[in-house]
Amino acid sequence: MAGELVKWSGRKIVKPSPVERCRQAREAAIALLGWQEIRVRPNGEDLAVSLCRYPGLAVDVPRKCSIHGGLYAARYVFGTDGRFRLGSMIVVSEALYLRQYAGNRNAATVPSDELGDETCPLCGASGFGSVLCHICKTEVCYGRTSGRYFRCHPNCGGEGLMQSDARVQRGVVPVDMRWR
Are residues 82 and 39 in the same domain? Predict the structure, then answer.
């Protein structure tokens, strides 16, 4: 009986079956690691993806520079306090896009009330979060804003008064897609 769990069943002591022990081990692992989803890779192998937030989880939220039109990402990191904090701003080159983002389905969200003061790594403009263009539906930097008036990147041409609204920022958990 050293360390084994036993179930009291009237007068008999019943040891858990192997199936019951597996179920208990699975429940303990889920409690420790959080729920996971099993996805099938294109080559047929299984891949476990965590569906819960954990301290250190990085989420890259896509952005576009309103001055230069280049792509970048705001990296938010989930902390032990249960909130996301701005970690860094990343210029997304073609090589980085292909390595980390192309085909990446590990979607994650960051609540808008947890956004930080972001600085565009391409033009240097800064502001709280980003501006959502009502025309192209792209999150752009504050590079072409004046007061509460904004202009989107030159390829779009959208402009207008900024409105504050609570929205969820959609991003991805960065992974090395070469191994997927």
Answer: no
